[in-house]
Design brief:
- About 5% of the residues lie in helices and about 50% in strands.
- The strands form seven sheets. The protein has a four-stranded antiparallel sheet with strand order 1-28-27-26, with no helix packed on it. A four-stranded antiparallel sheet has the order 2-3-4-5, with no helix packed on it.
- β6 and β7 form a beta hairpin.
- The longest helix is centred in the first third of the chain and has 15 residues.
């Protein structure tokens, strides 16, 4: 099915991008096409996927380089820090940077200033999604079909909870955690206090990203090329066409930004009614997205860059 094509696509484009990486230094801004001239792109490591910001700096998980790249707010290269094998997700908890290492079956906690390792914590198989909420870090374990809850202050495991098949992304409304299950075509709703599953919602084909706007959930369905808007009780409030292969979603300032992996673009949807507010061009095979005020940052796995819009 289409939902399985992203990994193959990422591997292929990463190989092509790596072949050309020798002519680019980390300090250089990637050459852009005329259409991209207004969208600065900055070189990072190999196969960038997850991305997060602390409001001052941007942290990028370079899945094929086994590093996290740190950029300043203007895109300047600050540092590169070694982590585990195939880091695919990164999050900031207000104090530390957390990195999910897909092939190491663990997460690492880094000092955001220096990149120093503060701790390494075992989780489930194939950790690939991170959520920081209420003083805890939630980890979606893709290969064990579970979510692990860690205490952010010291990494203590507070619980491991079963969800659907191949959980990828998480969002929260403060009381509950919502998990996209890519191979089950569902979203699992867990009680944040104890991880007890409350409900399961059917969504589109191959759900990837999920965002909460303060009232509704927005689910990016990779295989359906659409985004579904759900109430927190799972009620379908709308379905909206986006670009090819939507993989990530984030809410900021009344807009849901949806990253289209196959379309090399980001679709903007209004949280009021799902109206399409336009599309932003980014780099090749984009995956991750982070927001800081009115600025969004997008990882481009096929060009080893991050685009700032």
């Amino acid at each position: 099915m289409r939902k399985h094509l992203l990994i193959t696509r990422a591997l292929m484009v990463a190989a092509l991008a790596t072949a050309g990486a020798a002519v680019t230094t980390r300090a250089q801004t990637t050459a852009l096409t005329t259409a991209q001239a207004a969208a600065p792109a900055f070189a990072v490591g190999q196969g960038p996927e997850g991305i997060a910001t602390d409001g001052v700096s941007v942290f990028v998980a370079d899945q094929f380089g086994n590093t996290v790249t740190k950029l300043s707010a203007d895109g300047a290269f600050v540092g590169s820090y070694p982590v585990g094998r195939r880091p695919v997700a990164v999050a900031f908890d207000g104090v530390s940077v957390w990195v999910a290492n897909y092939l190491s079956d663990d997460v690492m906690r880094l000092d955001p200033s220096s990149g120093a390792l503060l701790g390494t914590y075992a989780v489930g198989e194939g950790p690939g999604g991170l959520l920081v909420a209420g003083g805890n870090v939630w980890v979606a374990n893709r290969n064990s079909n579970t979510v692990t809850k860690l205490r952010a202050s010291d990494g203590l495991t507070l619980g491991t909870y079963e969800v659907g098949t191949r959980p990828l992304s998480l969002a929260t409304d403060g009381s509950f955690v919502y998990v996209t299950n890519n191979n089950s075509d569902t979203v699992t709703k867990l009680r944040a206090s104890n991880g007890v599953p409350v409900a399961t919602f059917n969504v589109g084909d191959g759900p990837f990203g999920i965002a909460f706007d303060g009232a509704s959930l927005w689910v990016a369905n990779f295989g359906s090329n659409n985004v579904m808007r759900l109430g927190t009780d799972g009620t379908l409030q709308g379905t909206y066409a986006v670009g090819d292969g939507p993989v990530s979603a984030i809410h900021s300032g009344g807009v849901v930004y949806v990253v289209n992996n196959g379309g090399d673009s980001v679709t903007k949807l209004s949280t009021l009614d799902g109206a399409n507010l336009g599309s932003l061009s980014v780099g090749r095979s984009p995956i991750g997205v982070a927001a800081s005020g009115s600025t969004i940052w997008v990882t481009n796995s096929g060009s080893n860059t991050v685009t700032k819009r």
